[in-house]
Amino acid sequence: MKYKILMPCFNDWASVLQLLEKIDNEVSNIDGEFDVIIVNDGSNEKIPKTSKKYKVLKSVKVINMKFNQGHTRSNATGIKYLSRKNDFDYLILMDGDGEDRPEEIKLLIEKALSNKKTSVVARRVKRSEGLIFTFFYNLHKLITLIFTGRNINFGHYSCITKEDIINISSKKSLWINYSGTVKKFVKKIDNIPCVRGKRYVQPSKMSFNKLVVHAFSIWAVFKYQVLVRSVLFFLISFLFISLPYTIAFGLMLTTFTMGVFLSASQESSEKLENSEKNIANIETTHTTKL
User: Fold this and answer.
1) Percent of the chain residues past pLDDT 70, beyond the cut
2) Domain carrying residue 93
3) Is position 234 within any domain?
4) pLDDT tops 50 at residue 234
5) Quick one: DSSP state of residue 170?
């Protein structure tokens, strides 16, 4: 089997280099061929020079973007780039900062191989943030379940079949949210439990504001389900709530739904299709001739 490992990076090269060493160790007892693709999201810090030679990783390539476009769009660009290739069986997506633990790569692969033509996601069972952030994170998951009917309890960390990569690479929602797109368009999904790791170097960048933006980007993938359920909830409210409260509830639902559709306006088939034009160059930092 041939595996590609895709990760984005913006200036956090110290973490990426640590992660590469850990990945090299973790996959040493897995039968397969491993290549790493790093999407350099317009970093203004140069990639450190290293003479490190990896035992198992066949190659490490860096896709240098012309400008910073964010974590999600960097992954979308990498997925679009790889969807045109025919040299892998599975794509493993993970963060490059240590929060996606390389120890769980083996579990992802084992689960994927035990269920042919099935993609596997890493289901978070424990987070490393504080109680307040965890509360709001769980609240966003509950709202997602209520308004979309989907339980989305995973992020980018996943092992996706080549067929599913080709499938989602054409979906405009991939430009704004990965997990929602996978949940909506990938038919066969399994999961493994995972623990959110701690960043190797830089502190966590997930603030409350970013959590809100993230939540709305997921809801935007299912905007029509959100619209239908909002209308349904409003009609039901007439049966149980007095008129003044029903009006207030309706205004809240309207504001919420408008926010979802506003987020959905950032979906773009054109930008996704042309994302490779934003690649400045692709360089190989490590290669092993087999």
Assistant:
1) 96
2) 2-128+152-202+269-287
3) no
4) yes
5) T
Q: Is residue 109 within 8 Å of 34, Cβ to Cβ?
A: no
Q: Enumerate helices (H) and strands (E) in the chain, giving the number of each.
A: 10, 8
Q: Is residue 110 part of a domain?
A: yes
30 occurs within a structural domain: yes
**pLDDT band (50, 70, 90) for residue 208:** confident
Is the pLDDT confidence value at 207 over 80?
no
Mean pLDDT, residues 8-27? 95
Instruction: Note the pLDDT of residue 128.
Output: 61
Residue 76 maps to a domain: yes
Write the CA distances from 257 to 140, 224, 230, integer angstroms: 15, 9, 7
State pLDDT tens for residues 104-114.
Answer: 999 999 999 99
Surface-to-core class of residue 249, CB atoms within 10 Å of its CB (0-12 exposed, 13-18 middle, 19+ buried): middle
Burial of 92 (0-12, 13-18, 19+ CB in 10 A): buried
- Count of structural domains, the chain: 1
- Average pLDDT value over all residues in the chain: 93
CATH number of the domain within which 282 lies: 3.90.550.10
How far is 154 from 163, CA to CA, in rounded Å?
Answer: 20
Burial string for 113-142 (b: 16+ CB within 10 Å, else e) reads beeeebbbbbbbeeeeeeeebeeebeebbe
Asked if the model's pLDDT at residue 253 lies above 80, the reply is yes
| C-alpha distance from residue 95 to each of 67, 100, 102, 158, 271 (Å) | 19, 6, 10, 10, 23
- Cβ neighbours of residue 290 closer than 8 Å, sequence gap 6 or more: 33, 58
